[in-house]
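hey m, so remember when u said the tokens were messed up on ur end? i reran from scratch. heres the input so u can diff it against urs
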Amino acid sequence: MSRGEHRPGYKRPRTGEPRRVHQHFWINTLPAKVRDRIKELRAEGKTWEEIAELSREFSPKRLAPSVLHRWFDVHVQQPARRPELGDIEKLASLIADRIFERLKELLPGRAA
């Protein structure tokens, strides 16, 4: 297959969808100040096209809008949407406590 072609049935991951296979983004090989600048520009409300244009000033490589968008989604937005493990543990504990209390009500004398 030539570059840009995919096997039959392949669907590229869309915004918000995690990758099935962990692949590194070459943006991660750039200096941290380049990645921080991308985040700053996005926080200022710049579009991906505007950031790609401005990236010529602060990045050693040309940054395509599609690459910027996908990198930002995977490394900034998706992790921000994931609940913290501690929150999940607290929720699980709360659910278990409520189930145990309900069992005590339904089966008096059986639940210790």
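this time it looks ok to me. Helices lie at 32-43, 48-58, 65-81, 85-106. if urs says something different then somethings off w ur setup not the seq
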